[in-house]
Write a structure and sequence with these properties.
Layout lengths: L4 H4 L5 H18 L1 H9 L16 E2 L2 H4 L11 E4 L10 E4 L2 H16 L6 E5 L1 H4 L5 H13 L5 E2 L4 H13 L4 E5 L1 H10 L8 E4 L12 H12 L5 E4 L8 E3 L4 E3 L4 E6 L14 E7 L8 E10 L4 E7 L14
Parallel strand pairs: 1-13, 4-5, 4-6, 6-7, 7-8
Antiparallel strand pairs: 2-3, 8-9, 9-10, 10-14, 11-12, 12-13, 13-14
Helix pairs in contact: 2-3, 9-10
Amino acid sequence: MNLTPENIFSIQNAVEFEALALEIFRFQAKNCKVYSQYIHHLHIDTDNVNSINDIPFLPIGFFKTQSVLSNTEPVEITFSSSGTTGMVQSSHYVTDVKLYEQSYLQAFNQFYGDVKEYCFLALLPSYQQRSGSSLIYMVNDLIVKSTHPQSGYFLYNHDELFETLINLKSENQKTVLIGVTYALLDFIEHYKIEFPELIVMETGGMKGKRKEMVRDELHQQLTTGFGVPAIHSEYGMTELLSQAYSLGEGIFKCPNWMEILIRDTNDPLTLIENGKTGGINVIDLANINSCSFIATQDLGRIISDKSFEVLGRFDNADIRGCNLLVQ
Protein backbone atom coordinates (compact mmCIF):
# COMPACT_ATOMS: atom_id res chain seq x y z
CA MET A 1 0.00 0.00 0.00
CA ASN A 2 1.36 3.43 -0.92
CA LEU A 3 1.39 6.24 1.64
CA THR A 4 -0.73 8.64 -0.38
CA PRO A 5 -3.49 11.10 0.54
CA GLU A 6 -5.91 8.97 -1.46
CA ASN A 7 -5.24 5.98 0.80
CA ILE A 8 -5.42 8.06 3.97
CA PHE A 9 -8.71 9.78 3.20
CA SER A 10 -10.44 6.75 1.70
CA ILE A 11 -10.22 4.60 4.87
CA GLN A 12 -13.57 2.91 5.50
CA ASN A 13 -13.04 0.50 8.39
CA ALA A 14 -10.84 -0.51 11.32
CA VAL A 15 -8.88 -3.08 9.31
CA GLU A 16 -7.86 -0.50 6.71
CA PHE A 17 -7.04 2.01 9.44
CA GLU A 18 -4.76 -0.34 11.34
CA ALA A 19 -2.95 -1.53 8.22
CA LEU A 20 -2.18 2.01 7.08
CA ALA A 21 -1.33 3.17 10.63
CA LEU A 22 1.28 0.42 10.94
CA GLU A 23 2.73 1.28 7.55
CA ILE A 24 2.97 4.96 8.49
CA PHE A 25 4.51 3.99 11.84
CA ARG A 26 7.32 2.09 10.13
CA PHE A 27 7.86 4.94 7.69
CA GLN A 28 8.05 7.56 10.46
CA ALA A 29 10.13 5.37 12.77
CA LYS A 30 12.73 5.39 10.00
CA ASN A 31 12.34 8.90 8.60
CA CYS A 32 11.32 11.15 11.50
CA LYS A 33 14.58 11.80 13.37
CA VAL A 34 13.13 12.81 16.72
CA TYR A 35 10.59 9.96 16.67
CA SER A 36 13.29 7.47 15.72
CA GLN A 37 15.48 8.64 18.64
CA TYR A 38 12.53 8.44 21.02
CA ILE A 39 11.77 4.87 19.96
CA HIS A 40 15.46 3.98 20.30
CA HIS A 41 15.58 5.34 23.87
CA LEU A 42 12.52 3.26 24.73
CA HIS A 43 14.34 0.14 23.45
CA ILE A 44 11.42 -0.72 21.18
CA ASP A 45 12.02 -3.06 18.25
CA THR A 46 9.86 -1.73 15.43
CA ASP A 47 9.66 -5.22 13.91
CA ASN A 48 7.70 -6.32 16.97
CA VAL A 49 5.07 -3.61 16.58
CA ASN A 50 2.19 -5.43 14.91
CA SER A 51 -0.84 -3.65 16.38
CA ILE A 52 -1.78 -0.01 16.87
CA ASN A 53 -1.88 -0.83 20.59
CA ASP A 54 1.88 -1.44 20.46
CA ILE A 55 2.81 1.81 18.72
CA PRO A 56 4.75 4.28 20.93
CA PHE A 57 3.29 7.80 21.03
CA LEU A 58 5.55 10.83 20.82
CA PRO A 59 4.97 13.30 23.70
CA ILE A 60 3.46 16.47 22.29
CA GLY A 61 6.10 18.59 24.04
CA PHE A 62 8.60 17.68 21.32
CA PHE A 63 6.84 20.14 19.03
CA LYS A 64 8.12 22.91 21.33
CA THR A 65 11.77 21.95 21.06
CA GLN A 66 12.30 19.88 17.91
CA SER A 67 11.50 19.94 14.19
CA VAL A 68 9.13 17.00 13.92
CA LEU A 69 9.43 16.10 10.24
CA SER A 70 9.33 12.84 8.31
CA ASN A 71 10.52 14.14 4.95
CA THR A 72 12.97 16.63 3.49
CA GLU A 73 10.53 18.62 1.38
CA PRO A 74 10.44 22.41 1.87
CA VAL A 75 8.15 23.61 4.66
CA GLU A 76 5.11 25.31 3.12
CA ILE A 77 3.65 26.74 6.32
CA THR A 78 4.40 26.67 10.05
CA PHE A 79 1.49 26.49 12.46
CA SER A 80 2.22 27.70 15.99
CA SER A 81 0.34 27.38 19.27
CA SER A 82 -0.94 30.43 21.11
CA GLY A 83 0.58 29.68 24.51
CA THR A 84 0.69 32.23 27.29
CA THR A 85 3.28 34.89 27.95
CA GLY A 86 6.68 33.37 28.63
CA MET A 87 5.70 29.88 27.43
CA VAL A 88 7.48 28.19 24.56
CA GLN A 89 5.21 27.81 21.54
CA SER A 90 4.70 24.57 19.69
CA SER A 91 5.59 24.66 16.00
CA HIS A 92 4.16 22.27 13.44
CA TYR A 93 6.15 22.39 10.22
CA VAL A 94 3.86 21.43 7.35
CA THR A 95 5.43 20.38 4.06
CA ASP A 96 2.12 19.76 2.26
CA VAL A 97 -0.67 22.06 3.40
CA LYS A 98 -3.08 20.36 0.97
CA LEU A 99 -3.18 17.44 3.43
CA TYR A 100 -4.57 19.79 6.07
CA GLU A 101 -7.07 21.28 3.64
CA GLN A 102 -8.32 17.88 2.54
CA SER A 103 -8.50 16.71 6.15
CA TYR A 104 -10.72 19.51 7.47
CA LEU A 105 -12.90 19.69 4.34
CA GLN A 106 -13.54 15.95 4.26
CA ALA A 107 -14.09 15.80 8.04
CA PHE A 108 -16.63 18.63 7.88
CA ASN A 109 -18.38 16.82 5.05
CA GLN A 110 -18.42 13.58 7.07
CA PHE A 111 -20.13 15.19 10.06
CA TYR A 112 -22.11 18.12 8.60
CA GLY A 113 -22.33 17.85 4.82
CA ASP A 114 -21.21 20.08 1.96
CA VAL A 115 -19.34 23.24 3.02
CA LYS A 116 -21.02 25.15 0.18
CA GLU A 117 -24.42 24.77 1.83
CA TYR A 118 -23.33 26.79 4.89
CA CYS A 119 -22.69 30.35 5.93
CA PHE A 120 -19.67 30.51 8.28
CA LEU A 121 -19.47 33.19 10.95
CA ALA A 122 -16.32 33.43 13.07
CA LEU A 123 -15.95 35.03 16.49
CA LEU A 124 -12.28 34.30 17.17
CA PRO A 125 -10.58 37.47 18.44
CA SER A 126 -7.73 35.77 20.33
CA TYR A 127 -6.82 33.66 17.30
CA GLN A 128 -7.41 36.38 14.72
CA GLN A 129 -5.02 38.75 16.49
CA ARG A 130 -1.97 36.52 16.17
CA SER A 131 -0.14 34.75 13.36
CA GLY A 132 0.40 31.05 12.77
CA SER A 133 -3.03 29.77 13.85
CA SER A 134 -4.10 26.57 12.11
CA LEU A 135 -7.66 27.30 13.23
CA ILE A 136 -7.67 30.66 11.42
CA TYR A 137 -6.21 28.99 8.32
CA MET A 138 -9.09 26.51 8.34
CA VAL A 139 -11.79 29.10 9.02
CA ASN A 140 -10.42 31.40 6.29
CA ASP A 141 -10.73 28.56 3.81
CA LEU A 142 -14.21 27.52 4.99
CA ILE A 143 -15.40 31.12 4.60
CA VAL A 144 -14.04 31.26 1.03
CA LYS A 145 -15.33 27.84 0.01
CA SER A 146 -18.79 28.47 1.45
CA THR A 147 -19.22 31.28 -1.14
CA HIS A 148 -21.99 32.74 1.01
CA PRO A 149 -21.87 36.57 0.87
CA GLN A 150 -22.41 36.95 4.63
CA SER A 151 -19.67 34.51 5.68
CA GLY A 152 -16.92 36.29 7.56
CA TYR A 153 -15.29 37.38 10.82
CA PHE A 154 -16.74 39.43 13.63
CA LEU A 155 -14.03 40.75 15.93
CA TYR A 156 -15.90 42.79 18.56
CA ASN A 157 -18.73 44.09 16.35
CA HIS A 158 -21.48 42.19 18.14
CA ASP A 159 -24.24 44.45 16.77
CA GLU A 160 -23.39 43.38 13.24
CA LEU A 161 -23.17 39.72 14.26
CA PHE A 162 -26.62 39.86 15.87
CA GLU A 163 -28.18 41.46 12.78
CA THR A 164 -26.48 38.87 10.55
CA LEU A 165 -27.82 35.99 12.66
CA ILE A 166 -31.35 37.43 12.55
CA ASN A 167 -31.11 37.75 8.77
CA LEU A 168 -29.75 34.23 8.26
CA LYS A 169 -32.46 32.80 10.49
CA SER A 170 -35.17 34.53 8.44
CA GLU A 171 -33.69 33.04 5.27
CA ASN A 172 -33.53 29.50 6.76
CA GLN A 173 -29.85 29.50 5.87
CA LYS A 174 -27.65 26.71 7.25
CA THR A 175 -25.19 28.54 9.50
CA VAL A 176 -22.14 27.72 11.61
CA LEU A 177 -20.98 30.18 14.27
CA ILE A 178 -17.51 29.15 15.39
CA GLY A 179 -16.16 31.03 18.35
CA VAL A 180 -13.67 31.05 21.17
CA THR A 181 -15.55 30.38 24.39
CA TYR A 182 -15.13 33.73 26.14
CA ALA A 183 -16.21 35.64 23.00
CA LEU A 184 -19.41 33.60 22.68
CA LEU A 185 -20.19 34.34 26.35
CA ASP A 186 -19.46 38.04 25.82
CA PHE A 187 -21.92 38.09 22.94
CA ILE A 188 -24.84 36.44 24.75
CA GLU A 189 -24.43 38.74 27.74
CA HIS A 190 -25.75 41.51 25.50
CA TYR A 191 -27.81 39.64 22.89
CA LYS A 192 -30.27 36.76 23.02
CA ILE A 193 -31.55 34.92 19.98
CA GLU A 194 -33.73 31.88 19.30
CA PHE A 195 -32.07 30.16 16.36
CA PRO A 196 -32.53 26.39 16.91
CA GLU A 197 -31.00 25.45 13.54
CA LEU A 198 -27.78 27.39 14.23
CA ILE A 199 -24.65 25.30 14.77
CA VAL A 200 -22.72 27.00 17.59
CA MET A 201 -19.24 25.51 17.67
CA GLU A 202 -17.02 26.51 20.57
CA THR A 203 -13.31 26.04 20.20
CA GLY A 204 -12.65 25.99 23.94
CA GLY A 205 -10.60 28.14 26.24
CA MET A 206 -11.08 31.42 28.06
CA LYS A 207 -7.62 32.69 27.00
CA GLY A 208 -7.28 34.34 30.39
CA LYS A 209 -10.30 36.56 29.71
CA ARG A 210 -12.74 34.81 32.05
CA LYS A 211 -12.81 32.25 34.81
CA GLU A 212 -12.80 28.70 33.48
CA MET A 213 -16.16 26.94 33.69
CA VAL A 214 -17.24 23.31 33.78
CA ARG A 215 -18.63 22.15 30.46
CA ASP A 216 -22.22 21.59 31.63
CA GLU A 217 -22.51 25.11 33.02
CA LEU A 218 -20.88 26.64 29.97
CA HIS A 219 -23.06 24.77 27.50
CA GLN A 220 -26.20 25.55 29.48
CA GLN A 221 -25.47 29.27 29.22
CA LEU A 222 -24.69 29.05 25.52
CA THR A 223 -27.72 26.93 24.60
CA THR A 224 -29.97 29.41 26.42
CA GLY A 225 -28.29 32.45 24.89
CA PHE A 226 -28.43 31.23 21.31
CA GLY A 227 -31.67 29.27 21.60
CA VAL A 228 -30.10 26.05 20.33
CA PRO A 229 -30.59 22.46 21.55
CA ALA A 230 -26.85 21.67 21.87
CA ILE A 231 -23.41 23.21 21.62
CA HIS A 232 -20.97 21.69 19.16
CA SER A 233 -17.21 21.56 19.69
CA GLU A 234 -14.09 20.71 17.74
CA TYR A 235 -11.09 18.93 19.22
CA GLY A 236 -7.97 19.89 17.37
CA MET A 237 -4.56 21.35 18.05
CA THR A 238 -1.56 22.92 16.38
CA GLU A 239 0.29 19.59 16.28
CA LEU A 240 -2.48 17.77 14.36
CA LEU A 241 -3.86 18.14 10.85
CA SER A 242 -7.20 16.58 11.78
CA GLN A 243 -10.02 17.41 14.19
CA ALA A 244 -12.66 15.43 16.02
CA TYR A 245 -16.14 16.92 16.36
CA SER A 246 -18.78 16.92 19.06
CA LEU A 247 -22.38 17.46 17.99
CA GLY A 248 -23.38 17.95 21.61
CA GLU A 249 -22.90 16.82 25.23
CA GLY A 250 -19.11 17.01 24.86
CA ILE A 251 -18.99 13.61 23.12
CA PHE A 252 -16.45 13.66 20.27
CA LYS A 253 -16.08 11.43 17.23
CA CYS A 254 -13.11 11.22 14.89
CA PRO A 255 -13.04 11.22 11.10
CA ASN A 256 -12.13 7.88 9.57
CA TRP A 257 -8.37 8.58 9.45
CA MET A 258 -8.07 9.60 13.11
CA GLU A 259 -8.40 7.58 16.31
CA ILE A 260 -8.09 8.12 20.06
CA LEU A 261 -6.48 5.74 22.54
CA ILE A 262 -6.22 6.31 26.30
CA ARG A 263 -2.98 5.73 28.22
CA ASP A 264 -2.37 5.11 31.91
CA THR A 265 -1.43 8.36 33.66
CA ASN A 266 1.22 6.57 35.74
CA ASP A 267 2.59 4.34 32.97
CA PRO A 268 2.45 6.25 29.67
CA LEU A 269 3.41 3.24 27.57
CA THR A 270 0.38 1.28 28.76
CA LEU A 271 -3.12 1.70 27.34
CA ILE A 272 -6.20 1.38 29.53
CA GLU A 273 -9.67 0.05 28.86
CA ASN A 274 -12.68 2.02 27.65
CA GLY A 275 -14.52 4.02 30.28
CA LYS A 276 -11.45 4.78 32.40
CA THR A 277 -9.85 8.22 32.54
CA GLY A 278 -6.31 8.65 31.28
CA GLY A 279 -4.08 10.59 28.91
CA ILE A 280 -5.33 11.08 25.37
CA ASN A 281 -3.18 9.57 22.62
CA VAL A 282 -4.07 10.59 19.07
CA ILE A 283 -3.43 8.75 15.84
CA ASP A 284 -3.74 11.28 13.02
CA LEU A 285 -2.82 9.67 9.72
CA ALA A 286 -2.98 13.07 7.99
CA ASN A 287 0.23 13.85 9.94
CA ILE A 288 2.15 11.59 7.58
CA ASN A 289 4.88 14.21 7.02
CA SER A 290 5.44 14.92 10.72
CA CYS A 291 4.34 12.34 13.33
CA SER A 292 0.99 10.57 13.33
CA PHE A 293 1.24 9.24 16.89
CA ILE A 294 0.94 11.97 19.53
CA ALA A 295 0.64 11.67 23.31
CA THR A 296 -1.25 14.84 24.27
CA GLN A 297 -1.44 16.53 27.66
CA ASP A 298 -5.22 16.15 27.72
CA LEU A 299 -7.17 13.81 29.96
CA GLY A 300 -10.14 11.89 28.62
CA ARG A 301 -11.92 8.59 28.28
CA ILE A 302 -13.34 6.49 25.49
CA ILE A 303 -17.08 5.94 25.84
CA SER A 304 -18.08 3.49 23.10
CA ASP A 305 -18.07 3.08 19.32
CA LYS A 306 -14.89 5.18 19.23
CA SER A 307 -16.51 8.22 20.79
CA PHE A 308 -14.66 10.01 23.58
CA GLU A 309 -14.79 12.79 26.14
CA VAL A 310 -12.14 15.38 26.98
CA LEU A 311 -12.07 15.82 30.76
CA GLY A 312 -9.24 18.26 31.38
CA ARG A 313 -5.48 18.60 31.18
CA PHE A 314 -2.48 17.26 33.01
CA ASP A 315 -0.74 19.74 35.22
CA ASN A 316 3.05 19.59 35.09
CA ALA A 317 3.22 17.42 38.20
CA ASP A 318 1.06 14.77 36.53
CA ILE A 319 3.24 14.18 33.48
CA ARG A 320 5.26 11.12 34.37
CA GLY A 321 7.64 9.37 32.00
CA CYS A 322 6.53 11.40 28.99
CA ASN A 323 9.33 13.92 28.93
CA LEU A 324 12.11 11.69 27.63
CA LEU A 325 14.26 13.73 25.21
CA VAL A 326 12.13 16.87 25.67
CA GLN A 327 14.65 19.54 26.50
